[in-house]
Each structure stands twice: as structure tokens, then as C-alpha cells.
Amino acid sequence: VDVIASSLRVAEQVSGERLDAALRHLAGFGARSDGGVARLALGAEHVAARRWLIGEASALGADARMDAAGNLFLTLPGSDPTLAPVVTGSHVDSQPTGGRYDGALGVLSGLEVLRAVREAGVQPRRALTLVDWSNEEGVRFAPGTMGSAVYCGVRGLDETRAVRDPDGIDYGSAVDACRDALGDLLGAPYPLGAPLHAFIELHIEQGPVLEAAGAAIGVVNGIQGVRWFEIGVHGRSSHAGTTPRAARRDAVEAACALAVALRAETIDEADVTRFTIGRFLVSPGAVNTIAEEVRFTVDLRHPDAGTLAAIGARLERLCARTWAGCTVRLTELSASAPAVFPAAMTALLDQAAGELGMHAPRLVSGAFHDALHVARHCDTGMVFVRSNEGLSHHPAEFTALDDAVAGTRLLAAGLTRLCLR
Ligand SMILES: [Zn+2]
Predict the structure, then answer these.
(1) What is the mean pLDDT of the chain?
(2) Are the CB atoms for 174 and 135 separated by under 8 Å?
(3) DSSP secondary structure letters along 9-26
(4) Smallest Cα–Cα separation from 87: which of 79, 96, 98, 78?
(5) What's the 272 CA to ligand 1 centre distance in angstroms?
(6) What's the gap in Å between 32 CA and the centre of ligand 1?
(7) Distance 270 CA to ligand 1 centre (A)
(8) Most C-beta atoms within 10 A of its C-beta, which of 232, 251, 273, 337?
(9) How does pLDDT run across 119-157, given as a tens digit for each residue?
(10) How remote is the CA of residue 207 from the centroid of ligand 1, in Å?
(11) Rounded to the nearest whole angstrom, what is the distance from the C-alpha of residue 92 to the centroid of ligand 1?
(12) How far, in whole angstroms, is CA 414 from its chain's centroid?
């Protein structure tokens, strides 16, 4: 089998018309009147969308299975059933004020690749699996990327099944209800953590980099790491009118100075480090009382683990000092190490883009994706597709069909190469 010729043949079979129709159809599940979608994880709209997806994939000869974490796997069998599958996909759950493309494009581009493989008459050696990872958004059940985290052993199944939504329904019951609703369409449960040969996720960029570069698609180097901190600044409250400056221990004065110093510590010339103070709570919060306490958060991100650790250490040193007579306590709320995708996967996508005559610059993912966890489990890569104005998690989120088709062609070429080896 000529692997490259086959991969180009499959890429050629990718149909923009079909992809567009699928995007429109999926957007009907949980459609909002403003053109966006609200399709919360494992809710009625998500289950209905899955029923439709299973129907589409089954028509191509794929079998449908769910795992105990609620992930849905749609598999075209390979000629050698002893080999681990090549996997693509993303998520079809959305934010409550979500758009039509976040996650959805990754699943529908995968579905279009299954169709293109069939139309091209290529028989994959390895099975080709399309996955809808469960609860990526983390809105109904927190945190996000839950399904892929459990599949890859990053989270425990039992603790995850016990997570409750705002109505008190636990995740386990929601998974069971989804399985019951789809029961007639599903095969035997997919084993959690079963080996995967490789995973490629296509996703909208959700940022402005590709648009600024004038590129429709890009190859993702990895996903930056994140550390969340809460910083408590403790002073003493007293009367705003009677307390002279020398006698004050003003938590707001201290917190503002500290916040400026922390921010200055994270400024790099290349503008890679992301530093955000997104919450700043003052107590008691009275107009005429000096603040006793300020609690604020820091969201710190960087693609390099060593740099992320070094910046974190510098922030800790600043917090160990006394500011305006106030003491500071820094607590790390959560940490997620960066993922660097293996060179074999990025190079494969670079080569496939070259053969397709596509310009696909490299970039780092600023947002979390299921691929972050899957990268711990098997060789993983990502394709990004240009987002209009970098907008996402918004009903007006938009990606041009031509860009989506370009990304799907690259995905098709990459997956076909992997499936034939
Ligand atoms: Zn997403």
C-alpha cells in the first residue's frame, strides 16, 4: 500500500458540503435563538446529538460503544483487529452560551474523515475510532475534560461518578441514563484505558494567532501548563477617617502593591507567559473602613514546565514578604503540567500539510483540551483551525467552511497515514 498516495486520496474525498450539512444539523441539538448552542454534558440535547452521530457512523459500518466514564467511541474496524486503534475526535457538549464550532468541529471533521476513508475505498489496517469525550466543558459537572481524564487514568472513576450537578444529579447517574437512552445502539462497554495507537484532535483555535498569521490551519506543539493560586493579604481594619497612614495596616494597599509586583515578575519580552488576576475580594468591603483582608486569585500559564515552576517560585518569594505591614499567604489551588506533543506526531502533520500544499504554522494551545490528558496515554497531536476574531465560548463563534475543510483534509491525511502503518 502506498501510504502517502492513500492519505492524499482520502483527503481529496473530504466534502465541504457534507461537513457544512453536519455542522448545521448538530447545531440543531440545543439550538439557541441567537444562533449559538446550549448542549450541556449528558443532557437531553447531548444524548440526542449522540443518537444522531451513532446513526451517521453506523451507516458507514462503524460500531458504537461507551465506556464507564461516559465517552462515546465510534469505530470503523481495521483489517488487523489485534492492533490498537487510531483515534480522533473532541467533544459535542458546549457552554450554556456556546457556539457551533467548539468541540463540534473536532467531532464532525472526524466523522467526515470516516466518510472520506469509505469513499476513497481505503481499507485501514488499524481501526479508526471517532470519540466524543464526555463533559469537556465542565459546566454541568466540574471540572472540565472529565471523560478523557478518567479514560487516561488522570482522575478516578469513583470520585468522578460522585460529582454532582447543580440539581444534585451525580455524574455516574447521568452516564448511566445516557447509556440507557442509547442502549439499543451500543455494543459492549468500551474498556476504560484500553490502549490507543495515536490520537489527533482537531479543534478551533479559540485565539487570534492563526488569523494574525493569515493561516487557515496550524499544527499544535503542545498545551501550556496552568497553576492557580489564591493569595490572602491580612491587615487590620480600622476607621477610614481617624487612622493616620503610619498606623494603618491596609490590606488593599498591600494587595495592590503586591499585585503590581507579581505582574511585573511575569512580564517576558516574547509575551509567552500568561498572568491573570481574575478575582479580587475585599473585606469587610465598607466604604469608610480600612480593609482587613483581600483575597485574590492568580492564573499563571506557560508552555514550558521548568519556566512555569521558576515563575511560580518567584511569585512565592514575593508573597513571603510583608506588604504595607500586612502578611500574605499564598495557596496553590491547582496545577496542570504542560503537554508537549511528540515530535513524531507534529512532524507527521507537518509532512502531511506539505504534501497537501497547505501552510500550517506551529502554535501552542492556550486553552485546555482533551488532548492534554490523552497525550499521557498515547502519541497525540492537534490541528487548529482559524477562529474568526479569536472568539469562542460565545454564540457568535465562527469558523469559515473553507478553513474547516482545510483542517479536515489535514486530519484525514494524518489519520490515514497512522491507520495504514
Ligand atoms: Zn472545546
Answers:
(1) 97
(2) no
(3) HHHHT--HHHHHHHHHHH
(4) 78
(5) 21
(6) 18
(7) 26
(8) 251
(9) 999 999 999 999 999 999 999 999 999 999 999 999 999
(10) 12
(11) 8
(12) 20
What are the φ/ψ torsions at residue 23 (nearest 5 degrees)?
-60, -45
Is the distance from CB of 376 to CB of 193 less than 8 angstroms? no
Rounded distance between C-alpha atoms, residue 89 and residue 413, angstroms: 15
Answer positive or negative: Cα dihedral of 211, 217, 221, 226: positive
- Read off the pTM: 0.91
Give the end-to-end CA distance of the chain in Å, rounded to a whole number: 10
Pairing of the two strands 379-385 and 293-302: unpaired
Query: How many whole angstroms separate alpha carbon 314 and alpha carbon 258?
Result: 12
Phi, psi (5° rounding) for residue 131? -120, 140
98 Cα: distance to centroid of ligand 1 (angstroms): 10
- What is the Cα–Cα distance from 370 to 102, expressed in whole angstroms? 12
- Ligand 1 centre to CA of 137 (Å) is 7
Q: What is the DSSP letter of 242?
A: T
Closest to 107 (Cα-Cα) out of 207, 26, 198: 26
Ligand 1 mean position, distance from CA 306 (Å) = 27
| Pair type for strands 217-223 and 274-276 | unpaired
The alpha-helical segments, DSSP class H, found in 236-295 are 251-265
Taking the centre of ligand 1 as the mean of its atom positions, its distance from the CA of residue 361, in whole angstroms, is: 20
The span from the CA of 280 to the CA of 294, in Å, is 7
Ligand 1 midpoint to CA 203 (Å): 7
Cis peptide before 143 (omega within 30 of 0): yes
pLDDT tens digit sequence for 249-295 = 999 999 999 999 999 999 999 999 999 999 999 999 999 999 999 99
Report the separation in Å between the CA atom of 278 and the middle of ligand 1, taken as the mean of its atom positions: 21
